[in-house]
Amino acid sequence: MEAVINLPARTSCHRLGIDSNITKRLAIRFPSRRTKCSLYSDKIEIKRHTINNNVLGKYWGRNRILAMASKRDPNSQQNSLSSAETVDEYFTSINGKDLRQLDECISEDACFEDYAFTKPFQGKKEVMRFLQQLTECMGRNVKFRVKHIYEGDDLTAAANWHMEWKEKQIPFTRGCTFFKLTKLGKNLTIWRTEVLIESPIKPGSIVLTLLKNVTSTFDNFPKLAEWFLRSPHVILTWILKVYNIFIACWLHPILEGYIKLWSFFVRLLSSAITLVIFISKTFFK
């Protein structure tokens, strides 16, 4: 006879850059035994820890419930991480720049689709190259702060987050990532992601006006709409060609001169501030 113990629990995971609220239900199953099952037996040990430390860039701030099976049968399989815990480990590895642990989180046939890029990253090698560049660009002080992790059915999860510099939120860095995971032996690995990032441009009601014009055009010219929706990349490629031929040749020199002009003013201002500081230290000791 199989005994089932359901322990509803709310787990709050605080790691560096991560504030994850995961609501789940722990189901602990015991193999059939002739002896009477007792909740107070030494087969299950529930421990509640309150840890406030900062070790190797990781900190824990709230109560964390750990459910552990003591005196486990050596032939039984250990429980793997859940979908939400795997996602939590993924963001923690990025914040800690732990590429080895991050490599274990990614599936061999992974597909990462970040809508800030024109094409998705296909395969583990390409994904890891992108994540390595990401960790390098983040520097020492920029971290992901995950506000919530939501666990769905069929090995799916979602997380909303923003980025912080020394625990201060960076503007226009809010985002949401959707995860699809797959089983690799006893463990879960990330197979597919879709990343949505906040746009720094806030067009507001202009979006609704643009949407109305586009839908009206589609309704009036359905064949043109079907052709465009079948191959939207053709239009984008054509626009890029027009830009490179007619616009880039004179726009790039203007932007380059604009950048050089601002660089000159920054150096001039820096020299003036340095001179003022030198004079103040010399005459106002």
Automatic annotation (TrEMBL):
PANTHER family: NUCLEAR TRANSPORT FACTOR 2 (NTF2) FAMILY PROTEIN (PTHR33698:SF1), NUCLEAR TRANSPORT FACTOR 2 (NTF2)-LIKE PROTEIN (PTHR33698). Keywords: Membrane, Transmembrane, Transmembrane helix. It comes from Vigna radiata var. radiata (Mung bean). Pfam families: SnoaL_2. The chain crosses the membrane at residues 234-255, 261-284. Residues 87-181 form the SnoaL-like domain. It comes from the Eukaryota. This is Uncharacterized protein LOC106777198.
